[in-house]
Amino acid sequence: MVQAAVKLVLEPMFEADFKEASYGFRPRRSATDALEKLRVEGGRSGNHVLDADTRDSFGSINHDTLMTLVSKRVVDRQMLKLVRQWLRAGILDDGRLTTPTAGTPQGGVISPLLANISLHVLDEEWERKHAHLGVLVRYADDFVIACSTRAVCEEAERHVISAMAKLDLTLNPEKTRRVDMSWGNQGFDFLGCHLGKKMSGPIWEKERKRVYLLQRWPSTRSMKRVRARIHELTQRGRCHEDLRNVIKSLNAVLQGWCGHFRTGNASQKFGAVDPYVERRLRGLLFQRKVRHLKPGESRKWTRGFFESLGLIQLKGQIQYPGAASMRPSETPPATRKREIRTYGLDGGRASRNGCLNPKEGSTISQ
Length: 366
What we know:
The protein is an alpha+beta fold. It is 44% helix and 13% strand. A hairpin with a 2-residue loop joins strand 2 (91-93) and strand 3. The longest helix is centred in the last third of the chain and has 23 residues, at 267-289.
């Protein structure tokens, strides 16, 4: 509670300084905004992308360096002392108490803000010295730089490494790579989406020109995660539960997932999830009936049948950013770990993300 109160005081001070390139854990900014910035500006910059990831930035930020950055805006000694105490707060692990020498408060509400204050050094240096090399889009410690050529991309990586060294941070070699998107050859994953260039069919039909546009759709990992979540919610143990309750829990996941990916080129991926949901629900009914299944009864378990019980459909929910009414929450997640981002799997509300509202009515025999 105290951290939340301090965050409310400090955040406006640093928001005045934060750069356009930063999108993560900031008020009135979302992952969709970052992806759209990359699509519009990054697509114009060229075919080479530095897909970078900071190695454990939340756990490796130098305390002295961070406090120096905080003190540039905050002069109140009591406030500075409080922030330093949070940084040095002990961590109890398996009965052992350790005092951290680096990193932001584990799971603290204020941790994302402190991380942004630290990584603002990268944003500032890039804008001041290296903006001519390409477009930087950063979401917390995950960022990409769209460049025009391979040589420029390599130069951008050298400058990023130099800037990160000032913060005692390094790039994660396992997750950092240079991508060549020419002719749609390669792509990369960013914020749960896979981004790559595809040839524009309409332009080819009208002008017979091969024009490749940057597009995005749910990544392979995101598809596996949503399938795993659907599987979890439709396990055999729920076969005797009211199917409307099962569908209600599925809708929360589908609406949240739809809200995150519906502004991209996800129609094919959405079309693959819908049949999977139907198969899982149909499997529950088979498990329930077993020997009591009447001839021809299963033919009634169609898409329309499940929709009559309230199931939403992902197909047809695509809306491009200009038309979508998706306004991000002004309160960023409290967690400090980017690895647990769920990209909508925690659920969502139709009124917020614009996905189809579930229907009500109809019953099913128990």
